[in-house]
Design a protein that fits this description.
- Helix content is 28%, strand content 20%.
- The protein contains seven helices and ten strands.
- Helix 1 packs parallel to helix 7 and helix 6 runs parallel beside helix 7.
- It is an alpha/beta fold and 210 residues long.
- The strands form two sheets. It has an eight-stranded parallel barrel.
- Helix 6 links the parallel strand 7 and strand 8.
- It has one domain: Alpha-Beta Barrel (TIM Barrel).
Length: 210
């Protein structure tokens, strides 16, 4: 189901660390906000900071927590402040299901990956987030990948990530027709600091494709 179920592409802004950036992302039209709960990221927040920020997210905007090979205890500690879990490491389907919460699974587009088989493995995921592959780096590379590698029909919604910005997201949406797009560095002035101008430009570019 790479094609959109509706006319509107959903937008996820990831790597939120500041109060003002939540306001800016929501004002720009974000449908979901991502919080990185992996200490290896420049955009990482701990559970205490997540609790503070998540309280600022208004109704009908999804709070997404990004985890990289986290323990069940780490996921459980953050889960009360989240609406959706995003597993961005080497988690198995069983590990993703262990929290008993809605989740999406991130897949890095390494050579030879079989997206149809992965969709079957993670059949109960709410979507597959497709990101660029760089060895040893779980995400946030700022790199794109060949979008033509994505099958036109998958049994799960596609969330397109990897190097997206205002300058390329219109073409990405037109080519892939994803359920949603995910951006972090492409709307920043510095790691973890979102630019209101880039947030607005990105969301407008997505709407131009719709």
């Amino acid at each position: 189901m790479s094609a959109r179920a509706s006319q509107r592409t959903r937008i996820k802004i990831c790597g939120l660390t500041r109060e003002q950036d939540i306001a800016g992302a929501v004002a720009a039209g974000a449908d979901a906000l991502g919080f990185v709960l992996w200490a290896g990221s420049k955009r990482a927040v701990d559970v205490a900071r997540l609790a503070e920020l998540s309280c600022l997210v208004p109704a009908f905007v999804t709070r997404v927590g990004l985890f990289v090979d986290a323990s069940e205890a780490e996921v459980a500690a953050a889960a009360p402040h989240l609406d959706l879990l995003q597993f961005h490491g080497n988690e198995t389907p069983e590990q993703c299901r262990a929290a008993g919460r809605p989740y999406i699974k991130a897949l890095r587009m390494r050579d030879g990956i079989d997206l149809v088989a992965e969709a079957e493995r993670f059949h109960d995921a709410r979507g597959l987030l497709l990101d660029a592959y760089r060895p040893g780096v779980p995400g946030g590379t700022g790199e794109t990948f060949d979008w033509s590698r994505i099958p036109r029909e998958l049994p799960l919604p596609v969330i397109l990530a990897g190097g997206l910005e205002a300058g390329n997201v219109t073409e990405a949406v037109r080519q892939v027709a994803p359920h949603a797009v995910d951006v972090s560095g492409g709307v920043e002035s510095a790691p973890g600091e979102k630019s209101w101008e880039r947030l607005q430009a990105f969301c407008q570019a997505v709407r131009a494709a719709d």
